Every structure is written in C-alpha cells, then in structure tokens.
Amino acid sequence: MMKQSISAELLKLRHSRIGLVLVVLPSISLMIGCANFYLNQGVLENGWYSLWTQVCIFYGEFFLPILIAICCSYVCRLEHLNRNWNMILTSPVSVASVFFAKLLVVSILILFTQAFFLGLYWLAGTLFSLPGHFPVETIGWSVRGWYATLSISALQLAISLRIRSFATPIGICLCAVFIGLGMYTANLGIFFPFSLLTIGMSALNQDQLTNIQNILFWVANLFFIIIFASISIRRLKKKDILSS
Amino acid sequence: MIKTLGLEYYKIRRKKIWLMITLFLGVEMLWAFMSITRSIAKNPDHAVWESIVFNISSMNGLFMPIISAIVVSRICDMEHKGATWKLLVATNVRRGNLYAAKYICANSLLLFGILTQAVMMIVFGLMKGFPGTPPIEILLQFIVVNLLTTLAVTALQQWISLAIKNQTFALCLGMLGGFVGMTAGLFPGEARHIFIWSYYLDLSPVTFHYTGSTSLYITQPVGAGIVLFALAMTVLFYIAGSIHVSRQEI
C-alpha cells in the first residue's frame, strides 16, 4: 500500500520541472557564498571550513527551509485542485500511507538537493585550490542537516495540508526561519525544528556537538516528526475535507 | 475599470490577505526592533530615527520580494485553480483591464503593508524615546521608494504568476529576489543596479557608514537616475507581462 502511494506521488512529480528549482536555488546560494568568500579571503583564513560557513549560512538558513516549503506546497497542491482529495481519501490506501508517501518523496527531493549542494561545495573548494583535503565532517553535517529537514518537512506538510493556498505556507516558513534564528541565538534551538536545521548543518557554529547534544538533536527531531505526522494524520481522518 | 477592480477585491474578500501581510510584516518588524534594541544597548548613539528606517529598509530587501510574490501568487492563482481565466476573458472586458485590475489590487494591499510599517516605526520610536519628533519627510520618502520598488517587483511577479500555471516558479523567483535584496550590500554598485530587488536598500533615505572605529546613520539623497531606472523597469515588466498574458492562449 505504501509502495503504491509512493509511486503515485513520484508519478505526480513527473512533468513538474521541480528538479529545475532544486538545482537552481542551491547553485545560486553557493555562488553568492563563494563570491563573499572570494572577496573576504583576507579575513576568512580557515580554508574549507571558512568556505562552508559562507555557503552554508545562506543555504542552510534561508534557501533550504523555503525550498522544503515549496516542495511540500507542491506535493499538496495537486490534491487541493480538481476535487482530488475526494479521490485520494476514497482510494483503498490508508491516510497514514498518503501522508508518509508525501513526506518520503519530499525527503528524497531534499536528499538530492543536499547531495548536489555538497558536490558544488567540493567543486568550489577545488576551484579555489583550498589547502588540505575535503573535510569529511561536511558529509556528516549534510546528513544531519537532512535529518533535521524531515521535521521541517513534517511541519510544512501539516501546514500545506491544512491551508489550500500554495503561497501562504511559504510565507509562514519565512517567518518561522526568523523565529528559528532567534531561538538558536537564545540557546533554545533544540525546541524548534527550524533551529535544529541550523544546528544540524553546523551553519553558524562548526564546534562538534557533545554526546548529550547529539542525542538531544536526534531525539528532538524524531519527536517533532512524530508529533506533526500524528496531527496531520489525525486531522485527515477526523475532519471533513474541503474540495473544489 | 473601477468595476473590474471592485470585483478583484470581492474575489479576495475571504482570503484575509491583508491579515497575512500584517502578520508577516509583524515578524519582520519584531526581528528588526529586537536587533535595534540590542544595537542601542551596545551603542546609545544608535537611538535615532534614522537607525529604524535603515534597518527596516535593509530587512525589506528580504521580506518584501517574498511577500509580494505570495500576494501576487494568491491573487493570480485563484484564476488558475478555478479555471476562471477562460470565463473572465469571455466577458466584455479587455484582457489589459483585467491585468491592470489585478496589478492595482496587489499593489494596494502591499501599500497597506508599507503604511503599517511606517506607523509601527513611529510607535517604536516614540516608545524608545528617540530624540525629536518623527521625521515625516524621511518616512514619506521611505514609503514612496518602497512602493516604487514594489511596483516593479509585482509587475515582474504578476507576469510570471499569470503566464506559468505552476506557482513554484513565481515563488522561486520571489525567493531569489529576497535573497538578492538581502545580499545587495555585498555587490558593487553597478552590478546591483541591474537587480530591482536591491533597490529597497539602494533607494533607502538613510544609509549606514563606518568611519574607523565608529559607525553612524546618515540621510542620503535619492538619485533621480536610479528612480527613473526603477520606473523604467516597472513600465517594462508591466507592458511585457500585459502583452504576453493578453496574447497567450488559454
């Protein structure tokens, strides 16, 4: 049942050209980060790690969360159109599998974006002829960042399933990015999915997380995923769907 | 034309777009006020009206393109969603008038947002006890230049939102615009004048100057050339969008 839901979701993305957005946005954020790094090389002396701070601050803080919001809005947009909710909810698949298929598809898209971004980072570092080897930690940070995006995806999916507008959830995401930044600076990052992404990607601070912080990070994300997923599934089961 | 415009407002009467704009700008203002409060705590010389105008102008570079994209997308997407564009063009109204009505409707909502910002800035300044009375001239200039830049941004957004059904691209453009607006200060002057989104900062009536170890906010005159360039971009985007959308097969 789950497999069928996933293949249906993938089928819906076939001619969407969403891949273009997934490629263009990280490329531009990386280019601006690189330009900033190039212009300030006198101050940024930590090679690969300095380049990571410059490219990641734009990508991890602003681009990635909004990209997630766009993907989530898109996978829900098709259901909001042409009374498709009626078809989905009367089909012989569970509501949970519909939600998790959407979450999985968004997570695959974001995983691709993360891998693409990492590849671009490696390319930029090589072109700048930065001293030393490619820092292997960045792969870990990207994976950790991807894990943090799962809780944001679950939250954005919950919002996009609730709000029929395509654009409003993206605006909400923009506001949440700033709230997340505020919570991160107030050392309350662990309590908000958007701040967890900052922690996961090591966008503002490259210090290694302690064991406790690491465990808290993984547990908090899992907690948010479960909470947002159960709220959405429960709502889809209990509430009437508005379709037009 | 007035009737067409009235119908645009009628269609969005339950969408609460004005409330959405207020909430989004509220978050922006809250962030800016927190940042100014911290800056004043570090340097009491920053407790001036100019600081608030500069901070909001620079944050508008990020927020306004995205909010404009959202507002325009919501106004245009309802025609795509309901497949009502066909109905509209079948009525005895020119397509150009429909396009203009949507443009005026979107910009009037965004003007409401800019005016709300100005009021919030005055309230914050009075609460913080900034010296002197609110600088009406600077605030008026802030409103005019923000509206001018927004007019060009919405012209571009409306073109994309109506021409391409998939709103992902319109929102993506808004996001890129926000990103360019946010990082505008990093580009050299000649390069950033190409991008309309950087005009939120370029046309700001106040700028920030570092002089050795000190920093200060100073008022700057708005260049006529750059204003004309912004106006030219508005006209260009609007006419190109209107012609393209009017001739497009539905």
UniProtKB/TrEMBL annotation, chain B:
Write down the superkingdom of origin.
Answer: Bacteria
Q: Where are the transmembrane segments?
A: 17-40, 52-72, 104-126, 138-156, 168-187, 222-240
**CDD domains assigned to the protein according to its UniProt record, in alphabetical order:** ABC-2_lan_permease-like
| Alphabetical UniProt keywords | Membrane, Transmembrane, Transmembrane helix
Please report the name of this protein according to its UniProt entry: ABC transporter permease
User: Does the keyword Plastid feature in the UniProt annotation?
Assistant: no
Query: Pfam families per the record?
Result: ABC2_membrane_4 (PF12730)
